[in-house]
Amino acid sequence: xxxxxxxxxxxxxxxxxxxxxxxxxxxxxxxxxxxxxxxxxxxxxxxxxxxxxxxxxxxxxxxxxxxxxxxxxxxxxxxxxxxxxxxxxxxxxxxxxxxxxxxxxxxxxxxxxxxxxxxxxxxxxxxxxxxxxxxxxxxxxxxxxxxxxxxxxxxxxxxxxxxxxxxxxxxxxxxxxxxxxxxxxxxxxxxxxxxxxxxxxxxxxxxxxxxxxxxxxxxxxxxxxxxxxxxxxxxxxxxxxxxxxxxxxxxxxxxxxxxxxxxxxxxxxxxxxxxxxxxxxxxxxxxxxxxxxxxxxxxxxxxxxxxxxxxxxxxxxxxxxxxxxxxxxxxxxxxxxxxxxxxxxxxxxxxxxxxxxxxxxxxxxxxxxxxxxxxxxxxxxxxxxxxxxxxxxxxxxxxxxxxxxxxxxxxxxxxxxxxxxxxxxxxxxxxxxxxxxxxxxxxxxxxxxxxxxxxxxxxxxxxxxxxxxxxxxxxxxxxxxxxxxxxxxxxxxxxxxxxxxxxxxxxxxxxxx
Length: 513
Ligand code: MSP
Fold this sequence. Notes:
Blueprint: E1 4-8, H1 20-38, E2 42-49, H2 54-63, H3 67-84, E3 91-94, H4 98-113, E4 117-127, E5 132-134, E6 139-142, E7 145-148, E8 156-165, H5 171-180, E9 185-186, H6 188-199, E10 205-206, E11 208-209, E12 217-218, E13 221-226, H7 228-233, H8 235-238, H9 248-253, E14 258-262, H10 266-280, E15 288-291, E16 294-296, E17 299-300, H11 311-318, H12 320-330, E18 337-338, H13 341-370, H14 383-404, H15 408-429, H16 438-459, H17 464-471
Parallel strand pairs: 1-2, 1-14, 2-3, 9-15, 14-15, 16-18
Antiparallel strand pairs: 4-5, 4-8, 6-7, 8-10, 11-13, 12-13, 16-17
Helix pairs in contact: 2-3, 5-6, 11-12, 12-13, 13-15, 13-16, 14-15, 14-16, 15-16, 16-17
The structure holds 5'-O-[(L-methionyl)-sulphamoyl]adenosine.
């Protein structure tokens, strides 16, 4: 049976300069997408840009251009970023596209038909930066400004006619759903946050705005545009051509396997979105995972705070794979993480250059010199060879399980330990002292080459370019990478040629003054 996996990143507010937080969200999603791909899943990986709302309208006005023109330009920077980050996204959606508008208006009609939407008047606090409504108890006074406590962004008072979604009606069904689907919200701490928010009572949600025009029009009332979050969240469905439930994309990939998001937008994904879906009688996604923030100092990195670390600059200086590796390893997944250039350099030197790069170079150079540049043909495994090789096979299901629970920390630790063990094995076995026992020498080389191959497969979701570079040793390419075959101890073709490869990671000279 076909195994399908649908993963989404949030669609990004187009800003001229994507920052490390955006890069982080996307790289993590790409890690999961690549992992599932090599584990024989059909993967649909969606990202894109969220282009409506007052925030965008005001940004365009500031530049004196039409909002669509503004979005056309800026959306490109995110498309470019996907390429720069080497993402394997299978779609890039823009909320200004026709396919998206159609789905949003359809969903609106369904909600209205089901009596989940009604017209009334809204008065309350609104943050344009978050595109979110806040209650009195969610804001504070800071030097004369009203600020949302959670996001620290400015709020303004609005009063206008508005359509409302009957969110209050969905509190109990949501709580029941969380209880009967304990994996729906992760990690656990975030689930508790959401449950206590819902338990504190949900108010109906304003889902249209009348005082500006940059959005998708409410069907049958052109004076209103649809609230940007109702619009944006629906992208996960419009990318599958919903409401056409006969569409192959929809059939294969809905419900989504996972919406990967930052914790700041958890309420939208774990409360509003499932409520809209319940109301429209559409199946809910299987999981919403709220990861932590990349901090700059103690604060969330963001444009409005001016504390941005530019991923492009880091990539230009160190390369993409070191950044991908670093973000995946150093930010304990689910928690916030502080990033520093010094720790990035340590990672490159110790994990990538010393542990992985060196292992690849050492065993290849040895095999080229002592095994006629070929994968040894005659091998006879001893206990210690089988032991180290079998560890991979014996861990495959465990690794799969950990990935399904988004335990990236386990995955990376597993690789680091494997590298450590592999280096130790090669040192302890001392093949350079076995020149008069060629069978043993060949077996040690074969075993180590197999381990290099296995670890390179494991590293592919994290550092795809470097893993592929290493696999050139064996003339293996992307289509040869398969998770199950990490369990195969004799995957390499005996007698086939071994290639010398360029150095994988250059060590960074560190100035310790
Ligand atoms: N447009 C909305 C999402 C709509 S999804 C239907 C949005 N856009 S955003 O550009 O502000 O943020 C996109 C993603 O980047 C979010 O998951 C957000 O949590 C993440 N990050 C933004 N800053 C971040 C950090 N400093 N650290 C980690 N991720 C953060 O929200």
